[in-house]
Amino acid sequence: MSSWETFTWITVLILSFGSIIVFVLFVKDIRQILKKFQKEK
Amino acid sequence: MGVISTIDYVIIAIYLAGMVGVGLWFAKKHTDFDDFFLAGRSLTTPLLITTLISTYYGIDVLFGDSQLGFTDGVVAWFGYARPTYAFFLIAAFLLAQRLREEDFKSLPDILDKYYGKNTRYVGAVTSFIYSLPALSLYGFGMLGDVILGWEPIVGMLVLGGIALVYTLTGGFWAVVLTDSIQFVLMCVVLAMAFPFAMNLIGGFDIMIEKLEPSYFDSMGDLSIWLIIIYASTGLAILVEPTFYQRVFAAKSYKNIRNALIIGIFIWGSYDWIITILAMAAKTGTLIGKTIIDPGTGELIQKTIIDPGVAPDAALLTVMVAALPAGALGLFMAGVLSTEMSTLDSYCLVAGGNVAYDIYKPAIKPDATDQELIKTTRYGILLSWVLGFAMAVSFEQMLGLWVFMASILISSVLVPILLGLYVPKFRKPLAGFLSAGLGLFSTVILNVYIMMNGTFDLEEETYIVQWLGIDFLQEFVMYITLPISLIGFFIGLALDKGGRS
Q1: Torsion region of B73: left, alpha or beta (phi above 0 gives left; psi -120 to 50 gives alpha)
Q2: Do B188 and A30 touch (CB under 8 A)?
Q3: Which helix (H) or strand (E) segment is B463 a member of?
Q4: Which residues in chain A are closer than 8 Å to B208, comparing Cβ atoms?
Q5: pLDDT tens, residue by residue, B13-56
Q6: Inter-chain touch B269–A7, beta carbons under 8 Å
Q7: CA-based nearest residue in chain A for residue B181
Q8: Per-residue pLDDT reduced to its tens digit, B386-415
Q9: 8 Å CB contact between B321 and B357
Q10: Residues 6 or more apart whose Cβ sits within 8 Å of residue B471
Q11: Is pLDDT of B350 > 90?
Q12: Residue B9 pLDDT more than 80?
């Protein structure tokens, strides 16, 4: 496997797992936001 | 082009309906203008990461990077994308904290505080022009054409129209929430696309074998001047209206700083995969396959990707050829996400420029929050219509992107940065001359080059001959930025009074 291909697989892992982790954290925060709107209602 | 199955259409339809649903859900929940335009200044790090990344990664990256990747190779990442990360770091450590020190709502707010109303209006007009969603609408036209077989104008109207609806109704909250969904969709789908593309062309080693060695040269075949120009477009981040909006909408400085640092890794990975997929498309134009002619039933040789494919359509073409049913639908929804998240953010900023930066200070200083929200919606609609007109008029996206970035950099970079960091430079005439001359010279030079130059198919830009030198449209910034700087210091010398 060339260094170009190895680097590409590393970016694939960062992109896939990184984005999923960020999204999970986003879902945690969004609960607070939805609560805020419920309160205002 | 591959066949799109029913499941692909269902996935796209669910995605589009979801986006409109989010906008409608937020339609009547805004309490004031801060809530509508800055999401109540309550964005946390994960929300900032998702909205920053999905906003920046629109048409310029998807087609600009892939166009360069297709024609020149890895220089698309090393020369075009990588320098922007340095500007993101500068923004994270030097700029964002300074911006958070005052209660600003928009980029022209800063110009107003340092230089007065006239400079604010110049900044508002510049920000408005820069934020026109021409590139995204052009991209929707291409998506509709390449993937769905629609006329480009139909793609612009239908797909761009959906993003318009949820931005109009839901404001910044809808933009942030849809951005988050769009973020995960576009990242995961792009990561997933890589193995499929390698499978299509026979593996990474085939790509190395078939492509010219210059495709793996970090400087490629591009001239150093062109690389410097592409890299310097990253300067735009330092005066980017959507970036400023997110800095002002963050819960704290730490949130925006952390979001930028984490975001750089995801940005870098995204850019790299785009570049590699475009190179896979190029490889596909060089590899033959045997197929049965549907007309005669005979075996014929054909390349995997049509060698005549337009460089900016290469990425979409290789994905349609590589992905199976279902995955293709997800990819298309991901590509739509990339465009929608950009279009909604820029339309909202443009709408804010009309309402908050021009209408309120110039026409109705005592406008209520509800009036501002209503005027922002008119501004969003106006920006969409003007962007549509530009999208059907311009031919080259890369040239258009450089043109729009040069407008912003040339007019507001100097007064914003000097105003932020050198308090004694905050003189009204300095800011006004710098911003005004920068804007004026950029427009005049671009119009001149486009009317008197010739369109070079190889360089994919307009070129004029000046003093025996080929002057590319991309070089305009080399003239206009010094003009803005000179204008600033002339104004500084002439301004005897004013604020300081």
Answers
A1: left
A2: no
A3: strand B461-466
A4: 2, 4
A5: 888 888 888 777 777 677 778 878 888 788 899 999 988 888 77
A6: no
A7: A23
A8: 999 988 877 666 667 767 778 888 999 999
A9: no
A10: B449, B453, B463, B464, B465
A11: yes
A12: yes
- Which pLDDT band holds residue B471 (cuts at 50, 70, 90)? confident
Q: CA-to-CA distance for B212 and B214, rounded, in angstroms?
A: 5
Chain A residues inside the 8 Å CB shell of B187: 15-16, 18-19
Say if B216 is an interface residue toward chain A (CB within 8 Å): yes
What residues contact residue B348 under an 8 Å CB cut-off, 6+ apart?
A: B37, B167, B171, B172, B175, B245, B376, B380
Phi, psi for residue B498 in degrees, rounded to 5: 75, 180
Q: What is the Cα–Cα distance from B414 to B343, expressed in whole angstroms?
A: 27
Q: Rounded to the nearest 10 degrees, how much is the dihedral formed by the CA atoms of B371, B373, B374, B379? A: 120
* Cβ neighbours of B183 in A, within 8 Å: 19, 22-23
pLDDT band at residue B500, thresholds of 50, 70 and 90? very low
A26 contacts on B by Cβ (under 8 Å): 46-47, 50, 180
A22 vs B194: CB contact, 8 Å cut-off?
no
Q: Does B225 touch chain A (CB under 8 A)?
A: no
CB neighbourhood size of B51 (10 A): 30
> CB of B197 within 8 Å of any CB in chain A?
no
